[in-house]
Design brief:
Blueprint: H1 2-13, E1 20-26, H2 35-44, E2 49-55, E3 60-66, H3 72-81, E4 87-88
Antiparallel strand pairs: 1-3, 1-4, 2-3
Bound molecules: copper (II) ion.
Amino acid sequence: MKKLFAALALAAVAPAWAAMQAVTLSVPGMTCETCPITVKKALSKVDGVTKTEVSFEKRQAVVTFDDAKTSVQKLTKATEDAGYPSSVKR
Ligand SMILES: [Cu+2]
């Protein structure tokens, strides 16, 4: 039983079918230094997001997420719902 639990715990941390991805979103609507806080909060709430770095100076958000749990569309929708439409930066 102990062994099974350890295996399950490990699987939860690094499922073999999931891949971590990082995407840079352009968030042009940020107008002051508190805007990134709102954007970061919105992105962090999305299931599957593990890391969010929002830069006000660059008007961008770098999001690391599990592509088995979420998608870029869900991320851009989350920022849009928070009042900050975003798009993938290339
Ligand atoms: Cu602001």
